Amino acid sequence: MQRPNTFIRLAASSALSFVLLTACLSPALAQDNDNKYHVCLQATPGIYWASTGDAASKSNGAKFGFGYGANVEDRLTETIYFVFGLNVNAAGVKYSTNDSTQSLKSGTNTLVRSYANTSSSNASIQYLQIPLFLKMKTKSIGMMKYYGAFGLGSGFAISNNTAWTRTVAQAPGTAIVGNGSVSSYPTSGTDTKTADVNPIRESLLIGAGAEYNLSGSTSITGSLMFDNGFISAIPSGKTGPSGSVNPTLYTKGITLTVGILF
């Protein structure tokens, strides 16, 4: 239990140090101080899906997610900006797991029963995300600017809502699982414990977008981003609430960000 908490503190302090260091150095990199900083208030709907690293598991399709928050743009050069912020994002996934278990007679190698355990999960995990990325803009083309962006998103799990169902196929009789029988385990439920998901989600962010100037430094902005998670959303190898062993589960997404830039 100590390790995840230490990791969260280390990641948060590293992100904060990076933001402060960039803020201190950027005045020397910028050509002038006009419109050096911009604040963007934004909403981010997206479509997410699961990518599993386990042959016994698979994605069950896409799931809608939604996020909101604020980013700060720090102009480093005429066309390059460093972006950092604080967002609340919900990354949802649907997946199923199949595993087989054999019950042996105590103290022997005699097979008593075998059964197949199939579970389906529909998870909505909410994260407090700190994005850190570079935005490379064109110069103004009429009222428009276009840009590409890439960087990292560090997310910290703040809520979990996972609905699951479970089906067990077994030979006649009772197969022993732990201290109870298969029939004593629930066939459906909802898990809301954040302890049952990984506390940190790291992802690669890459995308492109455009800005339309309304007046002065105020613009409407929109972008499409690929949110490529590369840390398992749930603790791999641990037995989940449905009784199935957790797979390695990466969350991927395509997000649409719409915001107002001041």
Question: If you had to describe this structure to a student in words, what would you say it looks like?
Answer:
The protein has a single domain (2-261), classed as Lipocalin. Helix content is 11%, strand content 61%. It has one helix spanning 2-29; strands spanning 37-52, 57-59, 63-75, 80-104, 111-137, 144-170, 176-177, 180-181, 188-191, 200-215, 218-229, 249-261. The protein is elongated. Residues 1-33 and 171-184 have low confidence and may be disordered.
Fill in the keyword field for this structure:
disordered N terminus; 262 residues; 1 helix; Lipocalin; elongated; two-stranded antiparallel sheet
The residue ranges in which pLDDT falls below 50 over 5 or more consecutive positions are 1-33, 171-184
- SSE order, as H and E? HEEEEEEEEEEEE
Classification by helices and strands: mainly beta
Rounded to the nearest angstrom, the radius of gyration is 23 Å
Terminal CA distance reads 42 Å
**Helicity level, as a percent range?**
10-25%
Q: Please, what is the average pLDDT?
A: 80
Structure summary:
The chain is mainly β and 262 residues long. Helix content is 11%, strand content 61%.
